[in-house]
């Protein structure tokens, strides 16, 4: 019996020992787990707690404003609010949606679905006005609801509406630049967003004491364009008048400083309002100055004349027999326009009277390769590198792809396609002593000052040759095909262009023309070079020539621009080197 009790005691003791062992083991496991959670998992669980009760709130960078050269605002940021939600603070999504939806312009059911999320931060709507935001927050406060909060922000506004739209472009709803300067300089203008980690109490209010990591936003760079809005307004007004008068398919005008390459004004029609870019058609969005190409017509005769004189093949006084208006060559007859029947003309007068035959013969004297070299030296077939998106290089075929007639047609501005920007820089090069410049759009950044330095691509012709062509172009306006481009009191130099519209299916469209005038003034010390292009003017019985349609528009732009810039009129002494121009001015 005693042995049995002893055995029972031993067994019971062993069982208790085993139980105690396992209890101790369990407590040891929990102790180790607790240590692991407190020490090893501290960072992980702190992060989870922060995510549950805190928010990584973005600090939005302010997009750089855009100004004209004088500081007039062209693109600016208007303060708005972004409404965001913290799903961990939302108890009744349906009730919250019912109260907030009228202020956010969102359907109640749609908003309730968004608010059902338990995420700590998600945007409900951006671009909410201050008035809408204030109304919503007041309604939430009165209803004692939490979960919707406001974040300061801004949206892009263009105070001048349609004016300069193709240069500026626009910013989409995500804040990215689309088209124009907004796109080309997007990285500079946009800046870089920062962020702030914040924690909320149960009421949704920030606990400032626990404000965590913060990285400041880097705001975008303000840009000052070379554009002069005084000149831009002049150009836009005249294009509007031209559109109303001639009902063309489109129109383009550009003004540049020929000594620096600064673009002073640029406009195309049709245009659009960047504040309402979603309403614009593809035709309205096109910046024709850099995205469209056309046959420039007789403006291109400058290339042949300048190249031949520069190469010493001819002088400005050399005579060209112009076949009395009808030149049979390569199995085809080339005519001079408007029933002109010229015999011998000097190179200068080939430009003055815009003889197709004379230009063709000048190019032929140079030869295919040398003529092609000057076409390319003037920048045709290459982008001008203006800082705008979408620029094309035009079309210039190499001599290997020419037939026998090509050189005669190209010399008169056919069999080649150019952009308006290329053409205005061609003429600006003559005004700039033969130096071809890269067009510039940025005057300065931030509050920097200083003069824009010209970016010279190359010297095309010598200064002496440029002066010779300059004299011829003054005569074109004084007594030639561009007399309607005159500006009272100033010497104007320039050249007209008239070319039939190309038929997409081959050949040309009968009676449909693109007409233009490119020139500069004052011709004795050029300040402005410009181009006007009118695409398919509806002129009734009136002859559709560059000298009759585009040249008068240039004259009106130039007259207003001269007054705006307070340019001094030409004096008799200034004009002595241009006797034929002076005679014309004296006998007007």
Textual characterization of the structure:
The protein has 588 residues and is α+β, with helices and mostly antiparallel strands. The longest helix has 39 residues, at 2-40. The protein has 20 helices and 22 strands. The chain is 38% helix and 21% strand. The termini are far apart.
Please provide the count of β strands: 22
CA-CA gap between termini: 151 Å
Tally of structural domains = 3
Q: State the helix count.
A: 20
Question: What structural keywords apply?
Answer:
588 residues, alpha+beta, Penicillin-binding protein 2a (Domain 2), Beta-lactamase, six-stranded mixed sheet, five-stranded antiparallel sheet, 20 helices, 38% helix, disordered C terminus
Summarize the structure.
With 588 residues, the protein is an alpha+beta fold.
Question: Helices, strands, pairings?
Answer:
Layout: H1 2-40, H2 42-53, E1 54-59, E2 66-67, E3 73-85, H3 93-104, H4 108-115, E4 122-128, H5 130-143, E5 148-157, H6 165-168, E6 170-171, E7 177-178, H7 180-184, H8 186-190, E8 194-199, E9 214-215, E10 223-225, H9 229-246, E11 250-256, E12 263-269, H10 282-285, H11 288-291, H12 301-311, E13 319-321, E14 326-329, E15 332-335, E16 344-346, H13 347-352, H14 356-366, H15 368-377, H16 406-410, H17 420-431, E17 435-437, E18 442-445, E19 456-459, H18 463-479, E20 493-502, E21 508-521, E22 528-535, H19 546-565, H20 579-586
Parallel strand pairs: 2-10
Antiparallel strand pairs: 1-8, 2-3, 3-4, 3-5, 6-7, 8-9, 10-18, 11-12, 11-22, 13-16, 14-15, 17-19, 20-21, 21-22
Helix pairs in contact: 1-2, 3-4, 3-5, 9-19, 12-14, 12-15, 12-18, 18-20
């Amino acid at each position: 019996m005693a042995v049995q009790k002893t055995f029972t005691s031993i067994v019971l003791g062993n069982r208790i020992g085993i139980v105690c062992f396992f209890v101790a083991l369990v407590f040891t496991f929990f102790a180790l787990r607790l240590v692991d959670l407190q020490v090893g998992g501290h960072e992980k669980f702190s992060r989870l707690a922060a995510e549950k009760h805190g928010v990584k709130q973005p600090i939005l960078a302010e997009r750089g404003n855009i100004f004209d050269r004088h500081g007039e605002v062209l693109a600016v940021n208007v303060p708005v609010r972004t409404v965001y939600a913290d799903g961990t603070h939302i108890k009744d999504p349906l009730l919250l949606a019912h109260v907030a939806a009228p202020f956010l312009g969102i359907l109640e059911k749609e908003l309730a679905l968004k608010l059902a999320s338990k995420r700590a931060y998600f945007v409900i709507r951006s671009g909410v006005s201050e008035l809408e935001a204030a109304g919503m927050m007041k309604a939430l406060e009165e209803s004692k609801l939490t979960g919707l909060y406001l974040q300061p922000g801004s949206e892009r506004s263009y105070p001048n509406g349609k004016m300069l739209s193709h240069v500026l472009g626009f910013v989409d709803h995500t804040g990215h630049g689309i088209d124009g300067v907004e796109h080309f300089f997007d990285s500079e203008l946009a800046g870089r967003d920062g962020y702030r980690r914040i924690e909320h109490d149960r009421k949704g209010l920030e606990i400032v004491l626990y404000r965590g990591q913060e990285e400041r936003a880097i705001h975008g760079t303000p840009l000052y364009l070379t554009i002069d809005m005084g000149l831009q307004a002049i150009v836009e007004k005249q294009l509007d008048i031209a559109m109303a008068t001639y009902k063309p398919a489109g129109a383009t005008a550009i003004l540049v400083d020929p000594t620096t390459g600064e673009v002073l004004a640029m406009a195309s029609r049709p245009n659009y309002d960047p504040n309402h870019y979603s309403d614009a058609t593809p035709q309205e969005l096109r910046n024709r100055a850099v995205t469209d190409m056309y046959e420039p017509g007789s403006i291109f005769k400058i290339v042949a004349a300048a190249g031949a004189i520069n190469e010493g093949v001819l002088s400005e006084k050399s005579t060209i027999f112009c076949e009395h208006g009808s030149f049979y060559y390569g199995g085809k007859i080339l005519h001079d326009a408007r029933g002109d029947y010229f015999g011998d003309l000097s190179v200068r007068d080939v430009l003055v009277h815009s003889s197709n035959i004379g230009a063709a013969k000048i190019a032929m004297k140079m030869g295919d390769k040398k003529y092609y070299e000057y076409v390319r030296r003037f920048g045709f077939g290459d982008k001008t590198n203006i800082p705008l998106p979408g620029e094309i290089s035009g079309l210039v075929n190499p001599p290997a792809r020419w037939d026998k007639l090509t050189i005669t047609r190209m010399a008169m501005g056919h069999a080649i396609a150019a952009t308006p920007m290329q053409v205005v820089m061609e003429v600006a090069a003559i005004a700039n002593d033969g130096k071809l410049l890269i067009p510039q759009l940025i005057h300065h950044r931030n509050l920097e000052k200083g003069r824009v330095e010209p970016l010279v691509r190359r010297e095309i012709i010598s200064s002496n040759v440029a002066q010779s062509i300059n004299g011829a172009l003054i005569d074109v306006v004084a007594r030639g095909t561009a007399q309607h481009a005159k500006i009272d009191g100033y010497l104007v130099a320039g050249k007209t262009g008239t070319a039939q519209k190309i038929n997409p299916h081959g050949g040309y469209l009968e009676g449909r023309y693109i007409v233009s005038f490119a020139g500069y003034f004052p011709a004795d010390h050029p300040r402005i070079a410009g181009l006007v292009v009118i695409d398919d003017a509806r002129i009734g019985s009136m002859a559709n020539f560059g000298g009759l349609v585009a040249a008068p528009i240039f004259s009106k732009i130039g007259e207003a621009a001269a007054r705006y810039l307070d340019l001094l009129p030409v004096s008799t002494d200034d004009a002595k080197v241009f006797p034929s121009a002076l005679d014309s001015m004296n006998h007007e």
